[in-house]
Amino acid sequence: MDESLEKALLDMEARAQALRLELIAASEPNENHHPRIDELNRANASRLRQIIAVFGWPGIALVGEQGARAAWRIALHSHGEPDFMRQCRDLIDRATQNGDAPRWQFAMIDDRVRVFEGKPQRYATQLRHGAGGIEPHPIENEARINSMRMQAGLPLLAQTLAQARAKPAPPAALLEARDAAELEFRKSAGWISS
After folding, report:
1. Mean pLDDT in each 10-residue stretch from start to end of the chain (194 residues)?
2. CB 139 within 8 A of CB 117
3. DSSP state at residue 127
């Protein structure tokens, strides 16, 4: 295991998490796409891209479970770079097939990419606030969703929804602002056309 590489990944992820928490505490309407977090996400993606070029996907064998999870989180937040995020999804898919990453990591990044692209998700990991409260973004095959989730090591959808619904909902105005910012971000980043 490469401990210095593991530490570098953990440090990058920790800085990003600390900034997200700072923006949430400051009641930023869309902390996920704030200019400061976008800048940090791009810097982290650039460093992860360099790591991948030298070592391939930094999976469990190379950087341990914590380092591999940090790499996944960095990839998951590289949404300002659609092609790179898609590349990471494909690398994580291969890593899960080789036992070098848990399958739920692929499920979550695959769903996020698909939602950003305006496509139905496969594992129902991406939730949103709808008219009836928390709900998943559209699902590709609702009849098989719990089977897909179980194969990926995820809990049943009902359990995930119950946990998410137990948290208080943000004010409606904040949700509307987040939705508008998310749509604008998806267009400007090139996930969807205008």
Report:
1. 94 92 74 80 96 96 97 95 97 97 98 96 94 90 97 97 89 82 88 85
2. no
3. E
Closest of 18, 31, 59, 13 to residue 182, by C-alpha = 31
Scanning the structure block, which residue is given the tokens 């004010």? 171
Q: Residues near 134 by Cβ (< 8 Å), separated by ≥ 6?
A: 127, 128, 161, 164, 165, 169
At 31, which amino acid appears? Answer: E
Q: What is the DSSP string of 57-111?
A: S--HHHHHHHHHHHHHHHHHT-TT-HHHHHHHHHHHHHHHHTTSS-HHHHHHHHH
Residue extents of the structural domains in the chain:
1-101, 102-189
Q: How many CB atoms lie within 10 A of CB 128?
A: 14
